[in-house]
Amino acid sequence: MISQLFVLSQRGDSIVFRDYRGEVPKATAEIFFRKVKFWKEDEEGEAPPVFNVDGVNYFHVKVAGLLFVATTRVNISPSLVLEFLQRNARVIKDYLGVLNEESLRKNFVLVYELLDEMIDFGYVQTTSTEVLKSFVFNEPIMIDAACLPSLGPASIFVGYILTSEIDGTIQMKSYLTGNPEIRLALNEELSIGRGGRSIHDYGSSSGAGTLILDNCNFHESVHLDSFDIDRTLALVAPDGEFSVMNYRMTQEFRPPFRINALIEEVGSKKAEVFIKVHAEFSSSVTANTILIEMPLPTYTSRVSFELEPGAVGNTADFKESSKRLVWGLKKIVGGSDHVLCAKLTLSQETHGNITKEAGPVSMSFTIPMYNASRLQVKYLQIVKKSSTSNPYRWVRYVTQSNSYVARL
Amino acid sequence: MAPPAQSQRSPSPSQPSGKSEVTDLKTQLRQLAGSRAPGVDDSKRELFKKVISYMTIGIDVSSLFGEMVMCSATSDIVLKKMCYLYVGNYAKGNPELALLTINFLQRDCKDEDPMIRGLALRSLSSLRVENLVEYLVGPLGSGLKDNNSYVRMVAVMGVLKLYHISAATCVDADFPATLKHLMLHDPDTQVVANCLSALQEIWSSEASTSEEASREKETLISKPVIFYLLNRIKEFSEWAQCLLLELVAKYVPADSNEIFDIMNLLEDRLQHANGAVVLATIKVFLQLTLSMADVHQEVYERIKAPLLTLVSSGSPEQSYAVLSHLHLLVLRAPYIFSSDYKHFYCQYNEPSYVKKLKLEMLTAVANETNTYEIVTELCEYAANVDIPIARESIRAVGKIALQQYDVNAIVDRLLQFLEMEKDYVTAEALVLVKDLLRKYPQWSHDCIAVVGNISSKNVQEPKAKAALIWMLGEYSQDMNDAPYILEGLTENWDDEHSAEVRLHLLTAVMKCFFKRPPETQKALGAALAAGLADFHQDVHDRALFYYRLLQYNVSIAERVVNPPKQPVSVFADTHSSEIKDRIFDEFNSLSVVYQKPSYMFTDKEHRGPFEFSDELGNLSIGAEATNDVVRANRVEANDQDLLLSTSEKEESRGASNNGSAYSAPLYDASSVSAAASQAQSDSLISNLEVAGPQASFAIDDLLGLGLPAAPAPPPLKLNSRAVLDPATFQQKWRQLPISVSQEHSLNPQGVAALTAPQALLRHMQSHSIQCIASGGQSPNFKFFFFAQKAEESSIYLVECKINTSSAKAQITIKVDDQNTSQEFSTLFLSALSKFGFP
């Protein structure tokens, strides 16, 4: 069971602090924060989500720059506590609309109300936004229903695709009065599991229509009674935001970008970097907030850039402290090419193979209205419409990069 | 809302101690306490908020207790809730003032609104003041009978809170029995779940003193209760499902039909989006199938895909919890995951705690078919800007090299690392090359050619420097400069801060001297002189020892310091297989994340509900070695049987027991481990160690102590089909006094036959002495036996610790019937002394 639960700001101040069992010292918030802060200096790397100090176990998740922390002395399931902390943040966000330090500080009494009902004496009681509604006296205002599947491809390139995977989720945000049943229809030619075949067997992908998910899981409100027949999910949507379905696919897909990168020596203590990005998707779609990063040799002292003429919202920078090249593009229209050329001044001669001293190139982006996985919501139906309201509904597709890397 | 008037004259808002603020608040609360002016509730709300926010940041506002209580006479529910929160926090420190709150809380417990009743009851039971419990019993009793499920839910947790304040009051009011009734009859699943949580805590803690509670605790995992709950599992919230599944994992089904029923019932839980539900389900599947090897393997195949999906959905923290469990399974059954290695490739934006786990998994699944791809991938990480991960990656390549048969390609890669001219890469690679040469001396030629080019000035890390020096000593005949490099290092003796490096330097100079005496003589003299003057005790002692050895006889010195070596076949594993089994038994707990069994990081009472195996585990903690390094070679045969290593032990605990997950006791491995770790760095010590046991045998033989005559068995008869469950064993072991405690010498045949615990276990069984728990690796074994007098209920319990290198058995016997303890002891020793004879 959970002994204490608290939320800390980025600077380590307690915004809410609830002690459920009085079994661990009061000073845990300071102990925790010091440990996390100095983890890097002491032990290399980021503090893991679970650690033990003097017999007290600390669990934490980072959400919106806040640290949600639970403590216990008991040998509990770590997954249970971390899932709960994440859900706890989600529920708070459902109530506050926006989750950040300011909204939390302004509503901390409301958050206490939630924490009191979600856990009693260390045991989780409920995390359902609508059940909690009757215990919270700052009535939240909820109006619209929305549904946005977002899909994240992860790829690594070495000239050819080394490995690529899509981790997708159908995310639902629902504030329907009366919690009616909702039906979501997915692609009919959807199959789950890759029986017998090796998961990374790209060569023999089946017919173009079939969509193969390696595996998926569902929110507990989802009924799968007709899923096997017509690929429909039925659910009584709880209030707030949640994942209806998570899925994973390694079926071959066309990655949205192709990256070519090159670094070469050009004379003594000089080198050049070329990066070319080609957008593989159709010109009706535009990617935005693109960021491309590349570690340069540690002995790079100066970098000058040549950006494309007439480029708008196109920036390039050399981060001296981390020896990284950072190239940002506001927008990339489908089908287009973009090139960056950088001239490096080095503080010493190279050891011979400069390629080994730089890279890999990583890229992050968001592509609205683009669906890398081809998994679609064919329709979203509210089975019993209430007579008084005609709810809004919309479906949105987003593709987000997760780990998109091109090696040199 | 109007800002409180106080804010204008607040002297210094930045002052954190808040003394004057608290005084201000006190004045204002007093002013408002009696007021009935319109809008007074709003002003109170603002003040209360302030109090709560001070409380949150740790300012002591307990001095406001009286004023807060005075202000709480209100119908405003927001105020009420803030007041409850405040009172709950400070009542413990102000028992007299807490009494003031009882009145209004008791009144609220009878409110019309079930929510108010619930809130008041929760606050009343959260006061944590012992002399107020009399006021709690009544409202709790009515709360448990309330027609509103929210109030019952709160009341059940209230009973548990009461138990923690005053166990006697709780038990005297017969609350546990009421909870048991609710658990089996209440229509609301959260009430049921809370009853289960409360009863687990109460009965686990009562069980140590009460037979009845101990029986009640057992009924929680009896068939009717388990199936009643399982059939309703889908009605429970996901969190309560975790609780039920945790309970089901403790249940021992009567037959395989039951096992399959449970698994079919829970099959769709594996598709749940909540990782905690999935892991709890997996634990049930793994525990249920422990004794069914083929089904157990199918379970591994079945859970792969859901686990991988959980790893890649959710936040990094959630996926870390799942990945830790996947890591445990991969290390246990690498061959099942060997085709999934690409899932363990690191993504550049993953936190380092995730990458570290993935690297270990890649190392574990590497086999003949995928090694090339895996090592290629790891080499990419080695050039990574993230230095800790780059280091880990190089170590991973080295580990793969040490576990493979065909290392051609890997050796080349390792040598390329040495040429990368990055200090940390060179350092890691040197340590690896040294280990590699100890296993594959045939590669010495290729490796030495590259190592010879490394300037010792570029190697600063002690471990790497020690490795380089070891190679200089070991291969001094193949490295032209060896004597001169060693000489140079000896000249800088005083600048060398690491004692480990100086120790290695002494040994290396000695080895070099035996091979190339004229060139090394000068360095040797300097090294011995510096060593003798060294302030570090070990360095000083080693120098003195070498000096005297050389004085005595140079060729004997060479045999001691530089004997011909056997290549190391398997390097010591960091964890013993008992520890791994124990962690596996504690699946879906922190043990998996920390990679330690719970007794290593948790007090006994906090190891979680239903930890039946505590006692058995505890018995051995005293002897537990914290040093996990154990002798090499010893676990070679374990690989095939890791997956099911508990199953054989499972069988030995008797068919009818419905006890808990089994945990093998652990025992002291420190004597060997010290030797083993030394052996890695110094051949000298390991040589002496090897001579040890033989020498002691010889002396035993000379003195005629080694072979005690087997005494004739006495007329005591034992029940050959005795049965005892672990819980009873533990309880008896705790309660009974020691009847016999003695040391007994083993004959050499017995020692020779004791290669694994199972051998002795079967032997004793043939003498009607059953084993309930065993464990160990040569030379330390530990057993718990029991026996039952024929046609009587009288039980004998034995703890038997055997050290095969000293050929001694330490025996402790506890018995129900003291009159027969000597007879039993004689019988036990007689059985033991026959071990090893056909």
Automatic annotation (TrEMBL), chain A:
Residues 138-407 form the MHD domain. PROSITE patterns: MHD. It comes from Hevea brasiliensis. Belongs to the adaptor complexes medium subunit family. GO terms for biological process: intracellular protein transport; vesicle-mediated transport. This is MHD domain-containing protein. Its main location: membrane. Signal peptide: none annotated. The lineage of its organism: Eukaryota, Viridiplantae, Streptophyta, Embryophyta, Tracheophyta.
TrEMBL record, chain B:
It is found in: Endomembrane system. The keyword rRNA-binding does not apply. GO terms for molecular function: clathrin binding. Keywords: Membrane, Protein transport, Transport. Signal peptide: none annotated. SMART domains: B2-adapt-app_C. The keyword Protein transport applies. InterPro entries: AP_beta, AP_complex_bsu_1_2_4, ARM-like, ARM-type_fold, B-adaptin_app_sub_C, Clathrin/coatomer_adapt-like_N, TBP_dom_sf. GO terms for cellular component: clathrin adaptor complex; endomembrane system. GO terms for biological process: intracellular protein transport; vesicle-mediated transport. It holds the Pfam family Adaptin_N. Its main location: membrane. Subunit of clathrin-associated adaptor protein complex that plays a role in protein sorting in the late-Golgi/trans-Golgi network (TGN) and/or endosomes. The AP complexes mediate both the recruitment of clathrin to membranes and the recognition of sorting signals within the cytosolic tails of transmembrane cargo molecules. Adaptor protein complexes are heterotetramers composed of two large adaptins (beta-type subunit and alpha-type or delta-type or epsilon-type or gamma-type subunit), a medium adaptin (mu-type subunit) and a small adaptin (sigma-type subunit). Belongs to the adaptor complexes large subunit family. PANTHER family: ADAPTOR COMPLEX SUBUNIT BETA FAMILY MEMBER. This is Beta-adaptin-like protein. It comes from Hevea brasiliensis.
